[in-house]
Amino acid sequence: MAMEEKFMEKKKPWLGEPKNTIAVLQKYGFVFQKKYGQNFLIDPHVLDKIVAAAQIGPDDFVVEIGPGIGTLTQYLAYAAREVCAVEIDKNLIPILSDTLSEYDNVTVLNEDILKVDLNRMAREKNQGRPIKVVANLPYYITTPIIMGLFENHVPLESVTVMVQKEVADRMQTGPGSKDYGALSLAVQYYADPYIVANVPPNCFMPRPKVGSAVIRLTKHASFPVEVKDEKLMFALIRASFNQRRKTLANGLKNSPALEFSKEEVERAITACGFALTVRGETLALEDFARLADELERV
Ligand code: SAM
């Protein structure tokens, strides 16, 4: 039985149904805030797909970023042991206490997700075990949210999120594609990305101007490359993609964030077996790791 059918049996009204979403919005006279990237899901099949892709089970502690009026939250609460939903918009808080009133396993935090200490939350609510993050993300801060989760070493099992289609492509692609960049490398260093579904604008209210996709990032058990100085590797990656049209050597020499001389940069590139005319966009993660190890010795 699909999640939506099971759900209908248990609790009504459920918000995956567009008419119920409209009724809630009207009841509270809710006004969408563009600055918060508010595009609410109104398609039960997409909601089902997100929960299935995240593989939520009765033992899971789930963090939802941006619950909106609680549409996806209802699905998560039904499937998980416990859900913490973090919502920045204070106008949504009374609505959420209404739409989630039947669930005793949901906590709503009225906070900016970028300021929430998820390490602490995992310790306190999940005995430090890896948590699952699920969200229909606000698109204006997709990258800081994803990078924050990884760089702060939050204990994570997976991150299953709706993002702009173009951003999902960037996360999944490798060298040689125009979408390849610092985000691809960072995501792939920490996780295995898998695009679950493409989602058209008519699945949201209001409709976004761009196409969307659900992507699951499954955290690697161990890093796919070994590097002595992770920070240096990411500084090299950022420097080489900040000046995408330049050669790798020029990108690294010109970067204000790096302090290597022309000779040091050229010696390291040559030691890695690359031509001095090589461009950063042709290098894979293991190439950047080798380059970082060469420069780390300087
Ligand atoms: N989950 C709901 C759904 O699928 O219908 C809403 C998704 S909507 C794309 C993004 C949600 O994130 C909005 O509710 C918005 O207010 C919230 N949001 C935006 N910025 C946020 C932030 N910095 N921290 C927490 N929530 C945020």
> Which fold does the CATH topology of the largest domain refer to?
Rossmann fold
What is the CATH top level name of the largest domain?
Answer: Alpha Beta
**For the terminal residues, how far apart are their CA atoms?**
61 Å
Number of structurally distinct domains: 2
Largest sheet: 7 strands, mixed
Query: What's the helix count?
Result: 13
pLDDT average, as an integer? 94
User: What's the Cα radius of gyration?
Assistant: 21 Å
What is the number of strand segments?
A: 9
Any overview of this molecule?
The chain has 298 residues and is an alpha/beta fold. 41% of the residues lie in helices and 17% in strands. Strands 4-3-2-5-6-9-7 form a seven-stranded mixed beta sheet, with helices on both faces. Strands 1-8 form a two-stranded antiparallel sheet. It starts with a helix and ends with a helix. The chain binds S-adenosylmethionine (SAM). S-adenosylmethionine is lined by residues 36-41, 65-68, 71-72, 86-89, 92, 112-114, 136, 138, 141.
Indicate the topology.
Layout (H helix, E strand, L loop, with lengths): L2 H8 L7 H10 L12 E2 L2 H10 L7 E5 L5 H9 L2 E5 L6 H7 L6 E4 L8 H9 L4 E6 L5 H10 L4 E9 H8 L9 H9 E9 L4 E2 L6 E8 L10 H13 L5 H7 L7 H10 L13 H12 L2
Parallel strand pairs: 2-3, 2-5, 3-4, 5-6
Antiparallel strand pairs: 1-8, 6-9, 7-9
The structure holds S-adenosylmethionine.
The site of S-adenosylmethionine has 23 residues, from strand 1 and helix 4.
Please sum up the structure shown.
The protein has helices spanning 3-10, 18-27, 44-53, 71-79, 93-99, 118-126, 142-151, 165-172, 182-190, 230-242, 248-254, 262-271, 285-296; strands at 40-41, 61-65, 82-86, 106-109, 131-136, 156-164, 191-199, 204-205, 212-219. With 298 residues, it is of the alpha/beta class.
